[in-house]
Amino acid sequence: MPVYHDEKRNTYYISASYTVRKGVYKKLVRRGFKRKKDAIRMERILMANIEDNVRKINNMSLILDDLWNDYLGYMKLTEWKEKTAVTNTSKYKKHIQPVFGQRNVLQIEKKETNKPKEEPEEKKEEPVEIQQPSVEEPVYVEPQQPAPSIPSTPQPVVPSAPAPVVPQTPENKQFLFSEGYNMENVSGACMAYITGYTGGCYPLQNADGIYYGMEARFE
């Protein structure tokens, strides 16, 4: 991520583009650094946050079937009547689920959704020719003895495992220079606070473009 000098303001700023995932790009700009080394230090902090967030996004398992179930439950509580829910569920299971149901939504490309689904060809049953016995030779069929019934063995009941407890996401928190933090330790304190959760550290600056701390935000 390059560092540039703003001759008009006599400050330094950071500007770079990065890839979130295939086909999705973002641009990042941070201004207001009085010293070049402060801009370089902040550059390293931001790059670490970007790489961490991109890695989390790419590793997320957003299965379409799971998202549909959550969406269906929400719409039944808010807008859809029972008849509408049944109709839309039928359309989803017929047209969407067979193709994308177990796919990660982040990996589904737009061109795939525009491709018409090929209907499987119906297998035609070939007629079976039945040979009739001749009149001269009578056909005898011996009665079959019924197979002895075997008592079924009862299956043991296996108790279901308890559902895992999802840790609660902590609240957003600011690490301010007025509270004793500085450019040297604010990044480490913020990154330690969000470890284990989905979130990121974002620099804070006032209206004059002067940085005064960093904030931990959770998604």
Mean pLDDT value: 78
**Unreliable residue stretches:** none
Helix content: 25-40%
- Helix and strand sequence: EEEHHHHEHEE
> How much of the sequence is in beta strands?
15-25%
Q: What is the number of strand segments?
A: 6
Largest sheet at a glance?
3 strands, antiparallel
Distance between the termini: 25 Å
Summarize the structure.
The protein is an alpha+beta fold and 219 residues long.
Write structural notes for this entry.
Helix content is 32%, strand content 20%. By secondary structure, it is of the alpha+beta class. The strands form 2 sheets. A 3-stranded antiparallel beta sheet has the order 1-2-3, with helices on one face. A 3-stranded antiparallel beta sheet has the order 4-6-5. A hairpin with a 2-residue loop joins strand 2 and strand 3. Helix 2 packs antiparallel against helix 3. The longest helix has 24 residues. The protein is elongated. The two termini are 25 Å apart.
List keywords for this structure.
three-stranded antiparallel sheet, alpha+beta, 219 residues
Task: Provide the fold topology.
Layout: E1 3-6, E2 11-21, E3 24-33, H1 36-59, H2 64-78, H3 82-100, H4 110-113, E4 173-176, H5 186-194, E5 199-205, E6 211-218
Helix pairs in contact: 2-3
